[in-house]
Amino acid sequence: xxxxxxxxxxxxxxxxxxxxxxxxxxxxxxxxxxxxxxxxxxxxxxxxxxxxxxxxxxxxxxxxxxxxxxxxxxxxxxxxxxxxxxxxxxxxxxxxxxxxxxxxxxxxxxxxxxxxxxxxxxxxxxxxxxxxxxxxxxxxxxxxxxxxxxxxxxxxxxxxxxxxxxxxxxxxxx
Length: 174
Known about the structure:
By secondary structure, the protein is an alpha/beta fold. 26% of the residues lie in helices and 21% in strands.
């Protein structure tokens, strides 16, 4: 992963990019989902329905924090759409495209205009800094136990063989 470009909106220093580079996507981190005791992370879709991360345990969760004005976000969107397409009909993985600006109409229109099959959400609770720091795009991948497998700042090609291999392994795991 170190060969990837670390472009991100609001990415303040190269030090932060270097820290991100040191976190290989295949390495399992020790961060788990917050407990259901009130610290859960919740998102809301365009119909007002909410989804909590704790309710998604048992599934691989791909969360992308983005905004319509962010060039690296827009650049990586086709590859996220293609990655999601590889798992069409597979209930073992969930994609959450979280508009950090809370502009549901604008972000939904963006997805429709570009013919992306990506579900848009907005935060309905606080987002822990372990998930979203100060840069977008930021992608978080959780395994079926709710453990954070990767936190990736900056734009990526989500159709790269390395990422597809890791996601496949997560989806196929018990």
